Amino acid sequence: MIHSLFLINSSGDIFLEKHWKSVVSRSVCDYFFEAQERATEPENVPPVIPTPHHYLISVLRHRIYFVAVIQSEVPPLFVIEFLHRVVDTFQDYFGVCTEAAIKDNVVVVYELLEEMLDNGFPLATESNILKELIKPPTILRTMVNTITGSTNVGEQLPTGQLSVVPWRRTGVKYTNNEAYFDVVEEIDAIIDKSGSTITAEIQGVIDACVKLTGMPDLTLSFMNPRLLDDVSFHPCVRFKRWEAERILSFIPPDGNFRLLSYHVSSQNLVAIPVYVKHNISFREGSSQGRFDLTLGPKQTMGKSVEAVLVSSQLPRGVLTANLNPSQGTYTFDPVTKMLTWDVGKINPQKLPSLKGTMSLQAGASKPDENPSINIQLKIQQMAISGLKVNRLDMYGEKYKPFKGIKYMTKAGKFQVRT
Amino acid sequence: MSTIALYNDQGGAEAAMEAGQENSSSTGGAAFGLFSSDFKKNEDLKEMLESNKESLKLEAMKRVVGLISKGKNASELFPAVVKNVASKNIELKKLVYVYLVRYAEEQQDLALLSISTFQRALKDPNQFIRGSALRVLSSIRVPIIVPIMMLAIKEAAADLSPYVRKTSAHAIQKLYSLDPEQKEQLIEVIEKLLKDKSTLVAGSVVMAFEEVCPDRIDLIHKNYRKLCNLLVDVEEWGQVVIISMLTRYARTQFTSPWKEGATFDENNDKAFYDSDSEDKRDTTEAKPYTMDPDHRLLLRNTKPLLQSRNTAVVMCVAQLYWHLAPMQEVNIITKSLVRLLRSHREVQYIVLQNIATMSIQRKGIFEPYMKSFYVRSTDATHIKTLKLEILTNLANEANISTILREFQTYVKSQDKAFAAATIQAIGRCATNITDVTDTCLSGLVLLLSNRDETVVAESVVVIKKLLQTQPTQHSEIIKHMAKLFDNITVSMARASILWLMGEYCDRVPKIAPDVLRKMAKTFTAEEDIVKLQTVNLAAKLYLTNSKQTKLLTQYILNLGKYDQSYDIRDRTRFIRQLIVPNEKSGALNKYARRILLAPKPAPVLESSFKDRDRFQLGTLSHSLNTKAAGYQELSDWPAVAPDQSVRNVEVIEPVQEWAPSVGKTKKSGKPKSADKFYSDDEEEKKEEGSESSKDSSSSSSSSSSSSEESGSESEEESSEESEKTSSDSGKSSSGSEKSSSESESEPKKKKKTKKAPQKKSKPPAAFSDSDENGNGPVAQASSSSAESSSGSETDSEDSDPPATPQKKKKDVKSKPKAEVKSKVEVPLLDLVDFSPAPTNAPPSSVISSSLISDLEGLSLSNISSTMQVTTPSFGPVKTYELLHHMTGKGLSAKYHFPRQPCLYEPSMVAVQVILTNGSDHSLEEIHIGERSPAALNIHCFNTIERLEPEASVTVSMGIDFSDSTQAAHFQLCTKEDQFSVSIQPAVGELLMPSSMTEQDYSKEQGKLLGMNETSATITMATANTSRLAISKQVLSVCNVGEVPSSQNTVHRFAGRTVSSGALVLVCLELKESSTALLTINTEKSVMASMLLRDLKQPLVQA
């Protein structure tokens, strides 16, 4: 399946290669570079590129291209999903997935890639299993290893590999037993010029951090499970229980994992937490443009809107922006024409605004389109869909765990057209 | 210096640094620096690798891996590295493996040095080491070791550990790519591994199947249902592979569910939620199409996977539904596909491509989700274009206004490529939906005054196409375009306008000649495509309006005559001959008008995804729209379904054998050479399969798991009986094929006939007499039959001198075993003293109450108080071998399941182990050592201090199998030795009986419908139709309790799984003409299907 993997940084250098079958010359990447040149933006490189003898399937994350070389028919999503899993694993191991981190840990990276694929077919991709095979590098462990000569590599087959719960390792022990669940919802919306909602939907996830001793069996139930329209589960969740009773029953993996992601049905009206008053205009013949933006809270259910960040891709003709924020700071990148305004918290008494002028390139004609505005925000202690966890119970172990559930709402792809 | 830099680049940054120092210190020439740097660097690594210090070696290997990762050549270190292949340090060893796999191909001779290490490691007791040894061995692409690999694969395919078997499935593909000659042998291994029941193996072996022999669809038949049932538990990558394969399989085996169209909508919807049995009832309603239950099984078992977190799995299920499900069921996939659009950019790209193809054929299913395809300014261009494509496909009279409003926003996008694509999309909407054609057209005309050139150009092109489809009364637009002509510089747009002028020159009689005049002025400066259209325009005008344009035309034709491009010269020459009458031109001239001004068919604006449906969705080929290497065509539905009975699996494998070194089966008194090994099995299977439907020994020899050698007596009997029936035909035919076995088949037959009468009388006796732990009769039976069999085995050995080593081993084995059995006889009779609970007595109230409370805690359904876990009233005992005394250096062990609640923990299955000392000295300190998986919960027996020679002792232990038939592996230790043994429970042993009333039964059954129900229709043997016989057969297979039934034809049994307490309901409904419907309701669906298969066997068989 996957023949080889090349890692290419933003400046076009191949800084790591790994082959699972016979060696494929790195010159195969030339086709990739060609495609990269043709694409105007890094994101526009097509994910699947055919070459005379191979097919290149790539993903772009953290400004690194992960290019897999394929020789014959394989579902492209299979490769893409795997590559993303590789990135996730690196992130899990090194904290960040950057060129520097990968280069510093090249041996661990190689050991990981070796375990993750055998002959191009995924072998172990479950984080709990990998961590038993290859321990993540920590400063302490590196020191201990240099002194004692012990290694990062496990000698036994990971227990999960053979058990019915491959995602969990055995023999887990904690002095403090804790289980935390974060319900995070993101609002995807497009708001049109006049402020009416064109489309809005809620995508939610439940991320968990479970540090429990032994083999706990957890059940999580919701007050209003009917809200969840479409769900996808971590493999640990017992599907039939969900189908029958709308209860999440599972033996959790150890550590951090995503238990569930869900979609709240579009039938429900989605509350839009903020409104934007905007007046962006360019006058024909003048080299000046007006920029006027005011934000205000809309349906927030009494919670405050925090960490608001407004960004907008201004038209190419804009040279500079001379703006005055009532709060927070703004930056304008004259190269990428990206305007970012870090608003912070919205105070309903004193609405944040950003006003001023933009100067256009002399002689440039009026841009056709006003820039659209992307908004990021956070609302703590609330899931905008109204989803509520009813209770969390543990079976199978005797101790009393510490349980915590946190709600948060964020703006996902929240766009205002102007 | 420049050369140094050049070479240093190859040597890596480190080398560059060293070289730099080198050069600064010595003023030596470039050549010196060049060689020394490379040389020195490797010397340094070489020294480190050859040092005695582990840490230095490791450090060196890490640097070497660094070099490999950068793509630098490190092959000259091969000899130094390969020495460390046997290192004790596991990390060092792994890094050496990495190196070896990378360079072995280049250094084949040296690579051979490492082979022996791997061969040794293949025999390591640690499964992980065995697995990784096979992985590396098979990854070394050295043709010389092909035979070694082949052998290793065969052995590993029979390994005890599923992990090692998985590795062997991977190795099959590697070997195949190295040497395709081995295909036949590899197919045999694949066939064997396909029978494997471990979820770990399933994905890998199907992958190997796809790679090696995707056309051998016949290998799948028998495993089809198993694969369907295992699917949910297979790891996610395996799911993708299996689903793709099953899609192809289903297209060859089932008939199309699409024929009827809307007529059977409701019925089928219902059938979807109901069970197979429901389906079957539908058949009787004289419906023209009924879905094959196996087809339904596949659809049903893949459906939950739409909820997978793995996008590849979701996509794969989606394509399966698209290609296999009845039309009205396909829409369940849309929600999941739309969900995937939240994922990464690359995932979106692929999913959108597939949705684009689907939305052409079935726009209805995606229409409710139209808003999910609205474009955001932050999307990448190819995502935007795909979304646009889909929106266009979804457009219909009802939603077109919304879509067009959305398009208006897109047209203004700063991304001009996207804006251009939008214009094309508008054009398509305009042609497809006649209501809006005029609106679209006027909108596009407005765009003609856009400042952006590409937008204008695209509009012109689209308008041209639109006008062509509706050439009436659009002269205004043509005039408008003529006015814009001077401002448009994009050649495609200019050419389009010229063409329009020429085509509709009769509508704009004044303007067209003027345009031609302008063109004549700028002709030389135009692009080729514009020139061609100018010539065209000139010709058309000449024909319609020659008065005004004659001179202009001639001027243009003259310009064209001397043009640089031969295309234009040719065209000019052709046009001149065509339109200007002269003596040479002849007849063609008359037709010039008809040729040039012929009505032209309007272009069809259609999606670029129109013809993509010729490829299977979700494939690489679909994504690229060209056939990728290795693409397997999805065949059309067959008109008539092939025989569905090929998928019936009658072979039951209760007793299986894994140990790789141990010879195959006891029945194989005939010699088998190693390479005939598999083909042999196959043959036999064919012969015997037809004969008596199940020959447990042949099946167990080919797949199987437990360390069982001879097994219980009843087991042996059934196998031998069936063998007997088939032996005449089977044995002799196989015998004739192998000349060496001829001499041997004779005594074998004699033995059979000798035994026959004895055997036949036995089974009923054994069953009826045996009580709870009725070891007495069984033991007696076993002793007698064992004696006879031992006798005959000796016979056959004597009469068969040219036996292969393998066979000898077997014979040697079976002989002492027989002796042991006869010795065991006495202690077995005394067993009652050892057994922990009195026979048939109700379980102590303490246990059962705690058990019930525990079960209540685990299961969420309300358990009525009338339902209790009871002890079995009845149950024959099968004894399995745990440790053979040859392997155990005198210690032999057998075990059976006494079917009592375990004393130690309610979630454990009670197992009784009989230990016998067959050696001549006493064994001390017999206990249980390490176990695997480590999580395995075993309650061990107390250490046995001393076991005298010839003595035996029975001990009981408890094992928590967690409701899986996965074998429990542990070590049986004596003072000096330890032996790895394993206990694999038959699925029926993982249950405990539960008693309930008929009402409770049907109430519980009602809760376990749909996915939780598994059923099959069987043909009962006539001997089995009485209530007594049925309950006897059922109870012999599984540990359940009988539920009193008011109907005579319905037999009900209830039990609970030991670990989780999940309810298992078995129901046998007798129908006319000795058929019966066997239904199992439980939430453990894997268990249900295994149980179903296990139950089918004795009921069908007389």
Written account of the structure:
Chain B: Keywords: Cytoplasmic vesicle, Golgi apparatus, Membrane, Phosphoprotein, Protein transport, Transport. Chain B: It is found in: Cytoplasmic vesicle, Clathrin-coated vesicle membrane; Golgi apparatus. The complex is a heterodimer of chains A (418) and B (1102). Chain A has 418 residues and is α+β, with helices and mostly antiparallel strands. Chain A has 8 helices and 23 strands. In chain B, the strands form 3 sheets. In chain B, strands 1, 11, 12, 13, 14, 15 and 16 form a 7-stranded antiparallel β-sheet that branches. In chain B, strand 2 and strand 3 form a beta hairpin. The chains are: A alpha+beta (418), B alpha+beta (1102). Chains A and B meet through strand 2, strand 4, helix 2, helix 4 and strand 7 of A and helix 3, helix 5, helix 8, helix 10 and helix 12 of B.
The DSSP helix count of chain A reads: 8
Number of strands of chain B: 16
Q: Tell me the structural class of chain A.
A: alpha+beta
- Poorly predicted segments of chain A: none
The strand line-up of the biggest sheet of chain A is 11-13-9-8-23-21-16-19-18
**Low-pLDDT ranges of chain B:** 1-39, 261-286, 652-875
The backbone outline of chain A, from C-alpha atoms, is: globular
Distance between the termini of chain A: 47 Å
Q: Quick summary of this structure?
A:
The complex is a heterodimer of chains A (418) and B (1102). Chain A has 418 residues and is α+β, with helices and mostly antiparallel strands. Chain A has 8 helices and 23 strands.
Question: Could you outline the blueprint of secondary structure elements for this entry?
Answer:
The complex is a heterodimer of chains A (418) and B (1102).
Chain A: E1 2-8, E2 14-19, H1 29-38, E3 48-50, E4 55-61, E5 64-70, H2 76-94, H3 99-104, H4 106-116, E6 117-118, E7 121-122, H5 127-133, H6 139-148, H7 159-162, E8 178-191, E9 197-211, E10 217-222, E11 228-233, H8 239-245, E12 247-250, E13 255-264, E14 274-282, E15 288-297, E16 306-313, E17 318-325, E18 329-333, E19 338-344, E20 353-360, E21 373-380, E22 389-395, E23 402-416
Parallel strand pairs in A: 8-23
Antiparallel strand pairs in A: 1-2, 1-5, 3-4, 4-5, 6-7, 8-9, 9-13, 10-12, 10-22, 11-13, 14-15, 15-20, 16-19, 16-21, 17-20, 18-19, 21-23
Chain B: H1 2-25, H2 30-50, H3 54-69, H4 78-82, H5 90-103, H6 108-111, H7 115-121, H8 127-139, H9 146-157, H10 162-178, H11 183-194, H12 199-212, H13 218-221, H14 224-230, H15 236-253, H16 265-273, H17 276-284, H18 293-302, H19 311-324, H20 332-340, H21 345-361, H22 363-366, H23 381-394, H24 400-411, H25 416-432, H26 437-447, H27 453-469, H28 475-484, H29 491-503, H30 511-522, H31 528-544, H32 546-561, H33 566-579, H34 592-596, H35 620-624, H36 677-692, H37 696-702, H38 713-737, H39 742-769, H40 775-798, H41 805-829, H42 831-834, H43 845-858, E1 868-869, E2 879-883, E3 891-896, E4 909-917, E5 923-932, E6 937-939, E7 944-947, E8 952-960, E9 968-973, E10 978-983, E11 991-995, H44 998-1007, E12 1013-1019, H45 1027-1037, E13 1041-1043, E14 1050-1057, E15 1063-1070, E16 1075-1081, H46 1085-1100
Antiparallel strand pairs in B: 1-11, 2-3, 3-4, 4-8, 5-7, 5-9, 6-8, 9-10, 11-14, 12-16, 13-14, 14-15, 15-16
Helix pairs in contact in B: 1-2, 2-3, 3-5, 7-8, 8-9, 8-10, 9-10, 9-11, 10-11, 10-12, 11-12, 12-15, 14-18, 15-19, 19-20, 21-23, 23-25, 24-25, 25-26, 25-27, 26-27, 27-29, 29-31, 30-31, 30-32, 31-32, 31-33, 32-33, 36-37, 36-38, 38-39, 39-40, 40-41, 45-46
